[in-house]
Specification:
By secondary structure, this protein is mostly helical. The chain has 3 domains: 300 residues, no CATH class; 87 residues, no CATH class; 113 residues. Helices cover 63% and strands 6% of the residues. The chain is built from 26 helices and 8 strands. The protein has a 6-stranded mixed sheet with strand order 5-4-3-6-8-7. Strands 1-2 form a two-stranded antiparallel ribbon. Helix 9 crosses helix 15.
Amino acid sequence: MSLRAQVAWAALVFLAVSVLFIGVRPLVSPDEARYGIMAAEMAESGEWFALRMAGFHYYEKPPLGMWLMGASISLFGETATAIRIPSMLATAVSALAAGWLAGRITRRREIGVAAFLVQATTIGPLVMGGVASLDPIFSAFVAATLAAFYGACTSSGRARIGWLALAGVASALAFLTKGLLGFAIPAVSALAFLAWQRRWRDIVVLPWVPLAVAAAVAAPIAWMLHDSEPTFWEAFLFIEHFRRFAAPDANQHTQPWWYLLLLFPVGALCWTLLWPRVWRSLRAAGALNDGMRFTLCWIAAPLMALSLSKGKVPTYVLPLYPALAAVVTIALFTAHESGHIVAGVGEQCGRWLLRILAVVAVAFALVGGESLGVPTLWPSHESLRWVSIAAALIIWSELDALSWRARTAQLWLMRTATAPIAMLMLIPFLFPSAFVRESQLPWAALEANQQSLVDAPTLITTAQLGHCVSWVTGRRDLVIAGSPGEFDNELDMAVDRARLLSWQEVSARIIRGDGIALVVTLTDFDRLLTSPTLPPPDASDTRGDLVIVSWKRSRAAD
């Protein structure tokens, strides 16, 4: 197979699994709706340094990710697809970094293309690439930083300075996306690698160029952000960094030390199943070359450092997968070429397992999942989805069998990576929307009542629903009732505090006849009904655990 054909193959697979159906799945609250309304507010107002979430000051993340989503909204409109495009492009950058790294280590372009495909079909990066989130964007910049640093480690003279400068630019962009982790992850990876190599002089010399360039890129933007939001860095650095690392509160994802170690192999599916072969290949190779040492440091050092943090989220491991893709690709390529990889009983068992699962999926389609003890997952076309799953599993099985007929390592690995393509393409269609409460997926109810919510003099909702309400209505003046959640930046700003109400204050406004539309859960609505003088609403729409009610403005209020 020619290199050009291999590149075309990898590009088509990426388009199929990461681009083609990017807008199919509904927005997920709160993350996608949160970043969506922030980006939309920037695009609407033109105030790109004003970090607002439905009009509230928001100091949890720097602005670069929202800028990219806002630019996409300016081009394509306020749609789910628009705010996901930056994540999709960032996923492509991470895959390119994996491919470049593998090609640089081995000096073989075909291995680089295969590594791109391995990264593109790794489940964690693939799924996150279809989510409007800062994590894929941040991960792409971290991957670019470390890839450029490896370029510097394997160069000299002006080329080395160029690579170091590029690493500085990429790390500054990572910092402007998610903060100090943009410096910390590359730093611990590079330090571990240079220490393993006993390159003590480089530990002192190499950081200065990227640090200077990073400062030159980030400092002006940081200053303009401070000028626009004087309290941003105080809140962001203390609350979102030091407190999360040392003593996170209940809202900051406290997890045990082993949490990320458990999640990392889950996100690496389906390539996790080949880790035993990768390990045997590494052992058979004996001493590791410099490139493989670098990739292992890129994986292990940040994983151990991040595990020390008290606050953890699953996406912390996302920047590590490009290095893993390079390791997996190089190890499997080498093992196949040396004759150490042949089809065995394990592969046959795996294919039979896929076929059995396909039969089970057909049974669900014929008799219904509930009859077999599986709750309804999709409100419509459930049988069609089960049949599609069965077909995708059969395609996976047969393509995997075909891969073992390949004579070259290149063709074998490309076929192996492509085998689950049908199943990966189905992922956006398999979001279990029927299994999710109405308040967690409120789009249909909000769109049905959109005009009345837009026209209401005062729009009140909860922190849980605020992002979704603002996205559908376009209103940035909504009022939050009950616990403020992330609508409170903890700086007790008067302009935000005025829009945070207790349930008693909500009741008082309704009784006073202010003219209110209310979007709440049934539980919160029942809390309101305990007030004996609360007038009956003029309009009400209850769907599942979601309630949308409104009271017209009274003459007394006027």
